[in-house]
Amino acid sequence: MKPILVVQNEPMMTTLLCHRLTMNGHSVLTAIDGRSALDLVSWARPKLVLVDMLLPDMRGLDVLSRLKHQPATADVPVMMLLPYAHEGDTVAALESGAHDCLVKPIQPRELVARIAGALSRQKVAA
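RE: above sequence
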């Protein structure tokens, strides 16, 4: 089973996301920064990537851009985690290729529903 990669540098948020995802039958890998995330994606081939907009070494949009510009990862759904509801950030993420955006604090049922939607759209497109 391909994992979901959670790219988040806040330990409490990472724990909450991983718990919710594993409770819903997903395997999960984590990265605390953009460089680690890009390294993991290259060998783990996740089915979906959740990327925080604010990472310690690069912006989440930079991670998204690199994923979308590499042929091996261009089709992997990416969902951005935003620290606040700001139209500019949401639009920038969607225009850069994000499948969806979630604003923190993330509601657990919404997270699961949006991931299910992104994965089902990915299957239809394949």
